[in-house]
Amino acid sequence: MSATQSVSVGNAVIEAVMDMIDSGGYFASIHRGALDNGPDICCETAYSTAESVFLTKDTVELIDLTINAKHSNLKTLSDTLNDISDRLTRAKTYTSGNGFEIIDIMHGSPSIPSVIGREDNNDWLMAVGVIIKYYRKD
Question: Which SS3 state, helix, strand or coil, does residue 82 take?
Fold first, then answer.
């Protein structure tokens, strides 16, 4: 991204969490949007809201992030999403960036990796949800 481009604070928070996920070295790098062909991991927001608003107009905000993945091996897929969920929700330190500081990452919905389907090519589909709580500094 060039210095002249800017990213919304919410998107910067999601990118920081994606970097946390990618640091795990899983079978695919995470991206936003829909699942691609073959083994893949993606995420997208399901819901977000301000939890607290302060007189300074700084806020504590929540982003509900759904992480989807697919793989032909159900155990590999389940182990990967369980590890991602555990690493995010059990982390002791979080990223901060320009305009934000992640405070916590909690279980979302579904709170444990769940099978959501199977494709015609027999790839398994699973999802897990997390809630990202962050302080937005304007």
Answer: helix
> Which residue has tokens 């949800």?
129
- Chain centroid to CA 109: 12
pLDDT tens sequence across 77-106: 999 999 999 999 999 999 899 999 999 999
Helices marked H in the chain: 9-22, 74-89
Residue 65's nearest CA partner among 8, 119, 15, 9 is: 15
Strand pairing class (59-71; 96-97): unpaired
Do the Cβ atoms of 88 and 130 come closer than 8 Å? yes
- pLDDT 10s digits, 42-84: 999 986 676 766 667 788 899 999 999 999 999 999 999 999 9
**Tokens standing for residue 98:** 């320009």
Question: Contact 111/40 with Cβ under 8 angstroms?
Answer: no
Q: Tokens 């997208």 identify what position? A: 44
Whole-Å CA distances, 76 to 33, 60, 72, 114: 22, 35, 8, 13
Residue 58: CB partners within 8 Å, gap ≥ 6?
Answer: 135, 136, 137, 138
